[in-house]
Design a protein that fits this description.
Two copies of one chain form a homodimer.
Chain A (H helix, E strand, L loop, with lengths): L2 E7 L3 E8 L4 E8 L3 H4 L2 H16 L6 E8 L8 E5 L4 E5 H9 L3 E5 H12 L8 E6 L3 E7 L2 E2 L32 H4 L1 H14 L14 H9 L3 H25 L3 E5 L7 H14 L8 E4 L6 H14 L2
Parallel strand pairs in A: 1-4, 4-7, 8-11, 11-12
Antiparallel strand pairs in A: 1-2, 2-3, 5-6, 8-9, 9-10
C-alpha cells in the first residue's frame, strides 16, 4: 500500500491531506501561507510539513507515490506556474522546485481545476467522467474535467469561465479589467449587483431596501420567504447562470455541471433554478445535462490534487 | 506500409480519400449521397466504393489499418450516431454497421469535429496540439482539438459553438429554434443580417443599399473599396466574432483559433480583424492565442477522418 499527499495552496492557509493509494483521506491539516518576500517560504514550508508527516508516520519516500498541489494561478500541464498574484509568485517550474525540496514526484494544477477534479472523483460529480465545475464565490472560478482528467489548456487557463464576456455594454469593470464578465453577474458579488440594480429600477417595496449591502444569502433568504423583489432578483440570477453555463456546455458538452462556492450554500433551489433557465439556452443535444451541488467544500482541493498525483504516479 | 480511408459524408456527396499510413493522400473521389428511404443506402454505397478501390489497387483487408468517417450529426466516442437530419438517419452504431459492411475497423466522428482534426493535422493549425476551428458558413460549425485529439463531448456535441447564446433579447429565431445564437450574427448569413440591420439604422449612403440581399462577399468587397457603411458592418462582424471566440477560448484555452468556411475566403483581413477584436474580450492569459485561416477547404473532412482512424488503429 502506497500513500500520497494532496495540497491546496490558498492566500492565507495551505491545506494538506495524506491519502492512501485507494483514495482514503487519513489525515488533513493546515499551515499558514507566508506570502512575505514574494512567497519564497511557501514551498519550503510545505516540504517541511510533508517531511514531518512522513517522519511521524514512519513513511519512506518509497512508501509515497507522490504529491499533488493546487495553486491559485495558471499552471501548465508540464508544471510551469505563470504568476500567482495572491502568493507573490512569478513564473517558475513548480514540479522541479517542489520535487527537489521534497524528493517526491510532484504534479501541480490550478486550484479551481484541481477542485473540479476532486468534485468529479469524490464529490458532486462522482460517477461521471466529464464535468464542468462553476465555483460561485466572490468571483466565478471554474474547472473542466474530460474523460476523468483536468483540461489544462495551452496556457494553463482552461476553465477560466468567469471571464466570458456576457454584456459588452457593461460600464462597471470586472476585477480582471474587462467589462461585462460572467462573474460580474453570476458570482456572490454579482448577485449583490443584480439586487442593487433591481432596487434602482423597480418600485417594489422589499426588506432588501433596508439592508445597506444585501448579500447573496439575504436575497435567497428573502426569496424563500416570498418577497417579490428578492424573487425577481433570484430569477434573474438563475437566468444569467443558465445562459452562461449553456454557453460553456455548448463548447465542451459535459455529463454534469456542479455548482460550488459560497452561493451553493443556497442548496438545491440553486441547482434546480439554474437548470430550469439553462434548458432553453442549451442546444438540444445537451438539454439532459444534469446539475448538482458540490459536496466536498474546502476539501475539494486536497482530494483533487491527490487525484492528480495518483493519476500521474499511481501506476 | 499500410493504407487507410478518410470519408466525409455530406448531404449531397460523400467524399472519400485513400491515404498511406504516413499521411499522404493518394487518391480522392466522390459519390452521390442517396438520402432516400432514411438514407439506408449511404453506408452500403460507401462500403462498395471502398471495396472497389481496394480491389482496383490490389489491397487486402490486412493492408488497411481502418477507415475514419465524419457524418453531419452528433457521434459519441463509441460510435453511436444520434440522428443526422440531413441524411435521414436515426440512432445507431456507426462503428458496428459500417465495420460489418466493409470488414475494416471504423472510427466515426461529427463532420465539423473531424474537419477540425484535419485542419490541426495538415491545415491551418498544423504544428499545434490544441485548436478551436470555427467554420463560418451558412451557420457556424465548430470543432475542438485538445492534445491532438477531437473533444467529442458526452453527447457527441462538443464544439457546437454556433449555438452559444449571444443576445437573449433577439427576436428572430436561429435555425435550431433558440434565439440569439452566435451563428445568427457570426455566420455568412449572420453577416447579411448585420448588414440589413445597419442599413435600417444608419443614414449612410452605400452601394450595399442597391443590392437586394447583400452577401458576406459583398460586404467584404465594398469594405475593401472603402465604403463607410460596409466598413461599419465588417467591424461589427469582427466584434461579434471576437467576443464569441474569446468566450470559447476562456473555456478551452487553445493554442490557436482557425477560421474556415465560406466567409474565410475573405482572407487574412478576416483573421486579423477578428483577432484585433478578440484581444480586449479575452482573459489576459489567452491574449496571445493565434488566429489563422483554414487551408484544406473541402478536403479537411477526409484528412481528419483518416487521422481519426490512424490514431485509433495505426498502432
Amino acid at each position: 500500500m502506497k500513500f500520497g499527499f494532496g495540497i491546496d495552496v490558498g492566500g492565507t492557509t495551505v491545506k494538506l491531506g495524506l491519502f492512501t493509494q485507494a483514495g482514503e483521506l487519513l489525515e488533513k491539516w493546515e499551515i499558514p501561507t507566508n506570502t512575505e518576500h514574494e512567497g519564497e517560504a511557501i514551498l519550503p514550508d510545505i516540504a517541511r510539513a510533508v517531511a514531518d508527516c512522513m517522519s511521524r508516520r514512519g513513511l519512506s519516500r518509497e512508501d509515497c507515490l507522490g504529491l499533488g498541489i493546487g495553486v491559485p494561478g495558471p499552471v501548465s500541464d508540464s508544471g510551469i506556474v505563470n504568476k500567482c498574484a495572491n502568493l507573490g509568485w512569478g513564473v517558475f517550474d513548480l514540479h522541479k522546485t517542489l520535487g527537489d525540496l521534497t524528493g517526491l514526484p510532484v504534479k501541480g494544477g490550478n486550484d479551481a481545476n484541481v477542485a473540479a477534479l476532486g468534485e468529479c472523483w469524490k464529490g458532486g460529480g462522482q460517477g461521471h467522467s466529464s464535468m464542468v465545475l462553476a465555483t460561485l464565490g466572490t468571483g466565478i472560478g471554474g474547472g473542466i474535467v474530460i474523460d476523468g482528467k483536468i483540461l489544462f489548456g495551452a496556457h494553463g487557463a482552461a476553465g477560466e469561465i468567469g471571464h466570458v464576456t456576457m454584456d459588452k455594454h457593461e460600464t462597471e469593470p470586472c476585477g480582471c479589467g474587462k467589462f461585462g464578465c460572467a462573474e460580474e453577474y453570476g458570482s456572490a458579488s454579482g448577485l449583490t449587483r443584480l439586487a442593487r440594480r433591481a432596487m434602482a429600477k423597480s418600485a417594489l417595496p422589499s426588506p432588501l431596501r433596508a439592508l445597506e449591502k444585501p448579500t447573496a444569502k439575504d436575497v435567497f433568504d428573502l426569496a424563500a420567504q416570498g418577497d417579490a423583489l428578492a424573487l425577481e432578483v433570484r430569477e434573474e440570477y438563475f437566468d444569467v447562470l443558465g445562459q452562461f453555463l449553456a454557453g460553456v456546455c455548448c463548447v465542451v458538452d459535459p455529463e454534469i455541471v456542479v455548482l460550488g462556492g459560497g452561493v451553493s450554500k443556497a442548496g438545491p433551489v440553486l441547482a434546480q433554478g439554474v437548470q430550469r433557465h439553462f434548458v432553453p439556452y442549451m442546444f438540444h443535444t445537451g438539454r439532459g445535462i444534469r446539475f448538482a451541488l458540490a459536496t466536498l467544500g474546502n476539501d475539494a482541493g486536497i482530494y483533487g490534487s491527490f487525484k492528480l498525483a495518483l493519476d500521474q504516479f499511481g501506476g
